[in-house]
Amino acid sequence: MEQNKVDEKVMTLVHFARKSGKLVIGYDAVRRSVESGHSILVLIANDLEKGRQRSMRFLCEQSKVQLRLFSDKNNIGIALNTRDVGIVSIEDRNLARGAMKYLDQ
Q1: Phi/psi of residue 69, each to 5°?
Q2: Which of 26, 27, 66, 85 is deepest in the core (most CB within 10 A)?
Q3: Which pTM value belongs to this model?
Q4: CA distances from 20 to 3, 16, 58, 91, 92 (A)
Q5: What 3-state class would DSSP assign to 66?
Q6: How many CA atoms lie within 13 A of 2 on its CB side?
Q7: Spatial distance between the Cα atoms of 26 and 8, rounded to a whole number of angstroms
Q8: Secondary structure string (H, E, C) spanning 31-46
Q9: Which of 48-52, 63-67, 79-83 is the least confident region?
């Protein structure tokens, strides 16, 4: 499947997570979600600063939370109708599973 289609499908699932109250937006909020055990999948923008990528990757590995690189800050921000967003977390198991299915193709 081409990258634009994948991004579109994953963004649809991110929107569903947001509508159901199962989306966490922003580094600090995602960190708290991972630490508390609520996070199922963390999506990091490709252009998030390397230090934050590294620290979130380490935290997710320690907490056994799935992590994937996805799109860029500008596109995620536009899709969520907010400023640039570098990191989000999906807290719904089924939506996270669906997103990983598309991202892992």
Answers
A1: -80, 140
A2: 85
A3: 0.93
A4: 26, 6, 28, 10, 9
A5: strand
A6: 2
A7: 20
A8: HHHHHHCCCCEEEECC
A9: 79-83
- Cβ-Cβ contacts under 8 Å for 13 (sequence gap 6 or more): 90, 95, 98, 99, 102
DSSP three-state, residue 25: strand
Tokens standing for residue 44: 């990091």
Straight-line distance from the first to the last Cα atom of the chain, in angstroms, rounded to the nearest whole number = 8
Three-state secondary structure string covering 76-99: HHHHCCCCCCCEEEECCHHHHHHH
Q: How would you list the strands of the sheet with 41-44, edge to edge?
A: 23-25, 87-90, 41-44, 66-69
Average pLDDT over residues 80-99: 93
